[in-house]
Every structure is written in structure tokens, then in C-alpha cells.
Write a structure and sequence with these properties.
Blueprint (H helix, E strand, L loop, with lengths): L12 H17 L3 H8 L3 H8 L7 H11 L3 H39 L8 E2 L2 E2 L66 H33 L50 E8 L2 E8 L4 E7 L6 E6 L2 E7 L6 E2 L3 E2 L6 E6 L5 E3 L4
Helix pairs in contact: 1-4, 1-5, 2-3, 4-5
């Protein structure tokens, strides 16, 4: 009976129940993690992540485990779908929390600059806002001293109230307001020559615009029309539109160059979407080239190895990705993009100095 680690407290209850069910299936089967990894095609490290609640197992791994343990695939898949929805909701809540933290940090950073200076609003000068114009006295001394009220000298001009005239004292009479004087003399009238000149300019511009429209129409008709004999002009065949790549299956997150350097299990390229295309035994270790046609990528896997052994995957001797064996006695490399299953080669270097590679087909 394997001794499972305690599941994280923040794990969603639906995911916790599903993970506990997977543990019970493995316990009833009597298989250790190495045997489960060999029979399902998913590495031992991946199964440790799945069974410890650190990563939700992909659907392919669940189907493979059901076949290995003799469990009803439909029932286990139904539980996986519920757990997958709960996992997605948890990730969404995590993203929203991180976004709120970033917003709070940004607001705190902006607050370090201090409040806006007096007389400004939203970073703009308050003097630019529309304010009622101050009436000007018609004659000096007509409205007394003309003070702006208490504290007026400490405020900006944009915040001063409108000018309020003071009431005249007893016995004082303000001079009458005289209406503005009308302009004397007859208004100048444009001469007939000036009116004719403006009309000529207007007619000239209208004619110019009309000519340009006729030229544009002729050019369009020439392009769309025939070759002059009433026959439609032969159009040059345009380049065929590029066909878009087919959509990826559910759970698969990359394809081609986008997979280079990525974890095949995390990106959903393993399990039912991968197969071993070549293998070699180096010492006691088994080295394999795993290829996913769906992801257009390959990676190397080493099992029955010792801690400190390394494994590499390369395409044409370039772009090598490396994996290091730890206490689990197995490891796999990140992916590298490759168009066909015959283009990749896996090599292993044991701690003892022994090396070996798969035969590149």
C-alpha cells in the first residue's frame, strides 16, 4: 500500500474526491507507480503529480488507468469531467485574485506620488475649466471697492465667485447706463465685381470635382470591364487561401514549434496522443523516443535508471532538450518540434560514464 501525501487544503472538494478515487483504484490494483507508469504510458513523475493533487490528470491518462485497473471507463470519465470543471473554476478564481492584487499594487504605487496639487482636477489645471466671466464695471467707482469676500487672496482665480456689486450708500446715485452707440454712416456693400469673382471660383471648383469623379469612374470601369470587345477580361487567378490547421483535440495545448521546450504531460501531448517510435538499452536503463503526431513534437524518456543519469532528445543534432533522473529512477525531457516520427534521436549518459543513443531512422 503506497503512503500518499496529504492533499493540499486549497484543493477544490470535487477535485479532492476525484483524486481520492484515483488513489483507491491504484491501491486496489496492487501496482506501484512505476508499474502504473509503464502500463499507461504516462511517467511516474506525472502520476505523482496527479495523485498528490498538484495537477489534474488529462483524460487520456484517466482512460488508460481505467483499462489497466479494469474500471468502467464511462463512470471514471464522468467523474473526471466534473473535476475538470471544478479545476477550471479554481484557476479562474486564482487569476481574478492575482489581477486584484496587481491592481491594488498599482494603486498603491500611484498613491506614493501624493495627492494632486490644489487648483487641479484629474491631473488638469482647474484654470482650464469653464468659469463664469467676471462682469466689468461700466465706470470706475460705480460699484464701490469691489472686494471678492474673505479669503479671496488665497484662492486661485478659477475658484473666485462672480463679481458682486455693493449696494450704494444713502444719498448716492449711480450714473445711468448709456446704451452702446450705433455705428454711424452707411454700411459698405460688396461691389458687383467681387460677387462675380466668388461665383467664378465656386464654379471652377465644382467643375474640377466633377472631372475627377468622371476620371475615377472611367478607371473603375476599365478595371472591372472587358478588354474592349465586349468580353469580360480574364482575371489573374489569385493565390489559394492558406488552409488553417485542424483544431487540436480537447486537452492538447500546443502544436509544432509552440511545443518546443514544453512539458509533454502538461501540454496534453502524452498518453493516447503519443507512442514510442524507437528505443535502446543503455546499461540497465531503457531509453525511448516518444512522438506525438497530434502535437508534431517528440521527447525522450528514460526508465529503470539511476539518480544522476541524463537523457537528451535532438533533431538533426540540434536543439537538444535534456532531462535529469532523480530519486524516481525515471525522467523525460521537454519536447522539441519535429515533423515526422523518424526525425528525432534520444541519447542517454549514465552516471557511470556509459552512453548510448537510439538509431535515427
Amino acid at each position: 500500500m503506497p503512503r500518499w501525501k496529504v492533499l493540499p487544503d486549497e484543493l477544490d472538494p470535487q477535485v479532492r474526491e476525484f483524486t481520492s478515487q484515483l488513489r483507491r483504484l491504484v491501491d486496489r490494483s496492487g501496482l506501484n507507480l512505476s508499474a502504473v507508469a509503464d502500463r499507461t504510458g504516462y511517467s511516474k513523475t506525472s502520476w505523482e503529480r496527479y495523485l498528490n493533487g498538484r495537477l489534474l490528470a488529462p483524460k487520456g491518462a484517466i482512460v488508460a488507468l481505467a483499462e489497466v485497473t479494469g474500471t468502467n471507463t464511462g463512470h471514471l470519465t464522468t467523474m473526471w469531467e466534473l473535476a475538470e470543471r471544478a479545476w477550471s473554476r479554481s484557476e479562474m478564481r486564482h487569476d481574478m485574485t492575482m489581477e486584484a492584487i496587481r491592481i491594488s499594487q498599482a494603486r498603491a504605487a500611484l498613491g506614493e506620488f501624493g495627492p494632486a496639487p490644489a487648483g487641479t482636477a484629474n491631473g488638469r489645471s482647474a484654470g482650464r475649466t469653464a468659469a463664469p466671466a467676471e462682469p466689468v464695471a461700466p465706470e470706475a467707482g460705480a460699484f464701490g471697492s469691489g472686494s471678492f469676500g474673505s479669503g479671496g487672496s488665497d484662492r486661485s482665480d478659477a475658484r473666485r465667485p462672480a463679481f458682486v456689486p455693493q449696494q450704494p450708500g444713502p444719498g448716492h446715485q449711480a450714473p445711468p447706463m448709456s446704451p452702446p452707440a450705433a455705428p454711424s454712416g452707411p454700411r459698405p456693400t460688396p461691389s458687383p465685381g467681387q460677387g462675380r469673382g466668388k461665383r467664378k471660383v465656386t464654379m471652377f471648383l465644382a467643375g474640377l470635382v466633377g472631372a475627377l469623379l468622371v476620371i475615377a469612374a472611367a478607371v473603375l470601369l476599365t478595371d472591372l470591364g472587358g478588354d474592349g470587345d465586349g468580353k469580360p477580361a480574364a482575371r489573374t487567378p489569385s493565390a489559394a487561401p492558406a488552409t488553417s490547421s485542424p483544431p487540436l483535440p480537447a486537452g492538447v495545448k500546443c502544436s509544432g514549434k509552440a511545443c518546443t521546450g514544453q512539458d509533454p504531460e502538461v501540454m496534453g501531448c502524452g498518453g493516447e496522443f503519443a507512442k514510442t517510435v524507437s528505443r535502446v538499452t543503455v546499461g540497465k536503463a531503457l531509453v525511448e523516443v516518444r512522438y506525438s503526431k497530434t502535437c508534431q513534437a517528440a521527447w525522450a524518456r528514460i526508465t529503470q535508471a539511476a539518480p544522476g543519469d541524463t537523457v537528451q532528445i535532438s533533431v538533426g543534432g540540434k536543439g537538444a532538450q535534456e532531462g535529469l533522473v532523480n530519486a524516481d529512477n525515471d525522467a523525460y525531457t521537454p519536447m522539441t518540434a519535429v515533423a515526422t516520427q523518424t526525425g528525432a534521436k534520444a541519447c542517454a549518459t549514465l552516471r557511470t560514464g556509459t552512453t548510448g543513443c537510439t538509431a535515427q531512422q
